[in-house]
Design a protein that fits this description.
The complex is a heterodimer of chains A (365) and B (281). With 365 residues, chain A is an alpha+beta fold. Chain A contains eight helices and 20 strands. In chain A, strands 6-7-8-3-9-10 form a six-stranded mixed sheet, sandwiched between helices. In chain A, strands 13-12-11-14-20 form a five-stranded antiparallel sheet, covered by helices on one side. In chain A, strands 15-19-16-17-18 form a five-stranded antiparallel sheet, with no helix packed on it. Helix content of chain B is 73%, strand content 2%. Chain B is built from 13 helices and two strands. Chain B has a two-stranded antiparallel ribbon. The radius of gyration of chain B is 23 Å and the shape is globular. Classes of the chains: A alpha+beta (365), B mainly alpha (281). Chains A and B meet through helix 2 of A and helix 8 and helix 9 of B. The structure holds adenosine-5'-diphosphate (ADP) and magnesium ion.
């Protein structure tokens, strides 16, 4: 274990009766890291977070906090404050009493309690609401109270379970920057559960992608975006075109993949295990790295005849929908200038192509 | 926002309004009028004379009975709330779904039998040769005078109010947001402390209303103080029967009844205010 590891999950499994909610999890969370756990609804994100908070006991495996196993520690003996999806603010306490709650439980004196709570209200810019009832606050203000309530004890780690899901889009973006700044300034480790790719990718240092109780990939947003490790991740991110086929040759570091759309080539460098002929694999290429032309350009090994089937313009980028010869739908995202010289009409025959280095191989497991 | 009365709304509320008018407002008005009547030669006469009010309020015996009744029903409300809470807490938080359903069913069963019957059966338990004294006799204790004591009256009050208080408390506990409890634990609030810091404040309205019902039922109860308490000390309900028996003093009894109604209204108002204190919704 590394020195700067705060939390480690070692072979952690969680079952509810017969149902496996979390399958063998092994990962570490570094000190001061902003880690996002992302996945679709029901994939086990909350369960993972609740195990870390001590609200759910792992069925197997060990969870360590600062090197010490914490499996048997009840939640009230851990310092793992959580921000709930529903916020779970105490409606019978006013704003400042909510913030003072954890200090009171720790036996902090009255004056000291008030002083610290006021500091955090100030920091979260909600001082003026100190004596308001929770029901009198807006969604964004409640959010800030919930954060202050958890952070007032200055914990080493903060757990957040989809805290922004109840806010409208504009407020979401604002709170994202509040959260990111807060994390940077305090140096507190954030574990942030979300189903939103934009939240995870814009805030987190590293992202854990989960699917059906399993970790699909862990990495920085850039790594995951550029080189999705599994077909699930590539599909989930939705930003890559994917071609599945059989490996027909693998020599000199060049892998050839036979797909219904045609033979495609890519570099085998960086593959975790050697690639053998006959294996099923998927080539992924980002839709922003896929180019369009009227005739096959020279010097490109991967070219596909396609037919345009649709277009969509959002802001500065255009998305062109295309169909390959075998009927697979693919997508290209480009700026308007990049597309200026192309005859873009529905039904137009074009050529999709990308450079050899932009294709990534994902093996079928 | 005030909504004007619609014909539709009236159709449904009318029977209830008529019922209330017939069986609550009219008798109350009559009771008020009656309290100003006079009794001459054991005959009541319509009159407007404050003599009954002056006589009753001038009697130390009346105020003694008032004080005792108030204190005993307040004690019963506090006692039954305290005894019922662990029970409803366990039902709400420790039992499975099936167990909870059974517990609710068991709490409803006492309502099947008449309260009077249940009080009589307590006599069998508490009398000098009753079940409890016989059992104590086996281990060489007693007999103790259990019947005709304040304690026996209290047992009667508990018999009357316990199942209802458990049910009312249970419904307020059942609606507590469980994440609030987890949030408290998560902020280092231990299990017992959470009961006082989170669960009781969350269920406050229901707990206060349950205690209020216990108070109201005990305050007006006649059965327990007479059949278990032996009529001593005199409660207001006993005083009413005594007053009517002695020389047709229905107007004076009306004074006692009106004082009781006034007290209950004041207590109910204060309790509801206390229950909702600090809530703005
Ligand atoms: N207490 C529980 N009992 C039974 N099943 C549960 C329980 N908690 C969660 N689950 C199941 O575990 C799976 C993962 O749940 P959860 O971790 O809440 O998902 P997420 O937060 O990713 O949406 C879901 O299928 C859910 O139904
Ligand atoms: Mg969840």
């Amino acid at each position: 274990m590394k020195n700067d590891t705060l939390v480690s999950f070692e072979g952690v499994v969680k079952r509810f009766g017969e149902f496996v909610a979390v399958q063998r999890m092994d990962f570490e969370i570094g000190k001061g890291e902003f880690l996002a756990i992302m996945g679709s609804s029901g994939c086990g994100k909350t369960t993972t977070l609740r195990m870390l908070a001590g609200l759910e006991a792992p069925s197997e495996g060990v969870i360590r906090l600062s090197g010490k196993p914490i499996n048997d520690l009840p939640t009230w003996s851990r310092d793992t404050p959580m921000v709930w999806q529903s916020l779970a603010l105490f409606p019978f306490l006013n704003v400042i009493e909510n913030v003072e709650f954890a200090l009171k439980m720790r036996g902090v004196g009255k004056a000291e309690r008030r002083r610290k709570a006021e500091q955090w209200l100030d920091r979260m810019q909600i001082t003026e609401f100190a004596s308001r009832n929770i029901s009198q606050l807006s969604g964004g203000q409640r959010q800030r109270v919930a954060l202050a309530r958890s952070l007032v004890v200055e914990p080493e780690i903060l757990l957040l379970d989809e805290p922004l899901s109840a806010l409208d889009a504009a407020l979401k973006v604002r709170m994202q920057s509040v959260l990111k700044n807060l994390q940077r300034e305090t140096g507190i480790t954030f574990v942030y559960v979300t189903h939103s790719q934009s939240e995870a990718f814009s805030m987190a240092d590293r992202v854990v992608i989960m699917s059906r109780g399993k970790i699909e990939q862990i990495g920085t947003p850039k790594e995951i975006y550029r080189t999705p490790r599994t077909r699930f991740v590539a599909g989930f991110l939705g930003s890559s075109n994917m071609f599945t086929g059989k490996v027909s040759g693998s020599d000199g570091g060049v892998v050839t993949l036979d797909t219904p759309a045609g033979a495609l080539r890519l570099s085998a460098a960086g593959m975790p295990q050697p690639v053998a002929a006959g294996q099923t694999a998927t080539l992924t290429v980002l839709d922003t790295k896929t180019d369009l032309a009227v005739t096959p350009p020279s010097g490109r090994v991967n070219t596909l005849p396609v037919r345009m089937i649709g277009e969509e313009f959002i802001g500065a980028t255009a998305t062109i929908y295309l169909e390959t010869a075998d009927g697979q739908e693919i997508r290209i995202q480009k700026s308007h200038e990049d597309l200026a010289n192309l005859p873009l009409q529905i039904g137009q025959e074009l050529v999709a192509h990308w450079s050899y280095e932009d294709g990534h191989l994902v093996m079928e497991e | 926002m005030r909504r004007s009365l619609t014909l539709y709304g009236l159709t449904f509320s009318l029977p209830l309004l008529i019922w209330q008018l017939l069986f609550f407002v009219f008798p109350l008005v009559f009771l008020v009028a009656l309290s100003f009547w006079t009794v001459k030669n054991f005959r009541m006469q319509p009159d407007i004379d404050a003599v009954n009010w002056v006589t009753m309020y001038g009697r130390p015996l009346f105020w003694q009975a008032y004080g005792i009744t108030f204190a005993m029903s307040a004690a019963a409300a506090a006692l039954v709330s305290a005894l019922a809470f662990p029970c409803s807490y366990a039902i709400a938080f420790k039992l499975s779904e099936t167990g909870r359903r059974w517990a609710v069913f068991l709490m409803v069963i006492p309502f099947f039998t008449s309260y009077l019957v249940r009080v009589y059966s307590w006599q069998i338990f508490l009398s000098d040769a009753g079940i409890i004294n016989v059992m104590l006799g086996w281990v060489g204790l007693g007999p103790y005078g259990l019947l005709n004591t304040v304690g026996a009256t209290m047992i009667g009050y508990l018999t009357l109010t316990f199942p209802l208080v458990v049910l009312l408390q249970l419904f307020s506990l059942a609606f507590i947001d469980r994440t609030l409890i987890e949030a408290a634990h998560n902020l280092r609030c231990g299990r017992l402390r959470t009961v006082f810091a989170v669960i009781i404040p969350s269920a406050r309205v229901g707990l206060v209303i349950a205690a209020l019902f216990a108070f109201i039922l005990s305050f007006g109860d006649f059965v327990s103080p007479i059949y278990l308490g032996g009529g001593d000390p005199t409660t207001l309900s006993i005083l009413i029967t005594d007053t009517t028996k002695s020389g047709q003093q229905w107007p004076r009894a009306a004074v006692i009844a009106l004082t009781m109604i006034g007290t209950l209204m004041a207590v109910a108002f204060a309790a509801v205010r206390f229950a909702y204190k600090g809530r703005t919704k």
